[in-house]
Amino acid sequence: MDAINNNDAVDEVNSFFESAPLLKDANSINAKLTQFINQKSSLSGSEGPKRVVCVTSGGTTVPLEQRCVRYIDNFSSGHRGATSCEYFLKSGYSVIFLYRRGTCQPYCRSLPDDPLLECFELTDDSCIKVHESHSEAVKKAISGHHAAVSGGFLLKLPFTTIFEYLQMLRLIATSMKTLGPSAMFYLAAAVSDFYVPWESMAVHKIQSASGPLDMRLAQVPKMLSVLRNQWAPSAFCVSFKLETDTEILLEKAGNALKRYKMHAVVANELSTRKEVVILVTNSEKVSVYRENDHSDVESPLIKLLIEKHTSYIAVIKE
Ligand code: PAZ
């Protein structure tokens, strides 16, 4: 029975990819990934290749028309992903940051909403200078970002739709397979559960004159099991579970842990997600709190996950 279910799941995944619109720039994304990962593989130390984490961040969209005018969106500011990326980099990991276009970016968290207009001003002789009140934030953003990218520690890849996200995640995961247990997936993106299959999607803008809209959404196939079983079977995998009802949060996180064979699931509740998360593993459930109102919950969370990743690599190597 399990084998039949498993085959069904694989068929669903295959048909999702076969019917998805072609990923633009797939060749250039692949070239960037190959270069980034080859560089890490060649820098092997005593524990194997350098550690690389793929951090996913922000929400995926579901287009309603092929020439898309309208879409269903998924909540996520990208704050968790951007903050976590900074802590991984600080701990010596290289990061592939798969993020939703327009969401929060690493090192840019202290910038105002409209940084270009709010941080810079024109001088009397028409030069541009940083506004005094934002100069620290601008310096942090520019120096942190440039050091990570030009040092070859950070590769940023943007997505918008569910189709792009899953195709890019597959490219990343299959490229990271060569890193074995040194690879980690930290899947903080809010991924749509339902979508309109490309072949049944309206080509042009849906007309309002046709009356109320009646639309059937298909279920997005669960990719976590494919990631674990096929794309990067030796990688250390952490997924996230967001709920608004605390009563069901831990049960849902526990189910995800078992069903998708995750190494850890980070459970969080919408209104308290910046203050506390619960790290669920096979052996324990640990509440992780931020130290104070000015600190990040991602700091102790990433520290804990890195310890677990270290133990995982040690066990695999035995
Ligand atoms: O991006 P953000 O900081 O606003 O929120 C982070 C989050 C709640 C999207 C993330 O922690 C999370 O739980 N992601 C998975 C969501 C899900 O269950 O699909």
From TrEMBL:
Keywords on record: Coenzyme A biosynthesis, Ligase
The keyword Ligase appears for this protein: yes
Key word Metal-binding present: no
GO-annotated molecular function: phosphopantothenate--cysteine ligase activity
Gene Ontology biological process terms from the UniProt entry: coenzyme A biosynthetic process
Pfam families xref list: DFP (PF04127)
Pathway: Cofactor biosynthesis; coenzyme A biosynthesis; CoA from (R)-pantothenate: step 2/5
Span of domain DNA/pantothenate metabolism flavoprotein C-terminal: 174-293
InterPro entries linked to this entry: CoaB-like_sf, DNA/pantothenate-metab_flavo_C
Similarity field: Belongs to the PPC synthetase family.
The protein, known as: Phosphopantothenate--cysteine ligase 2
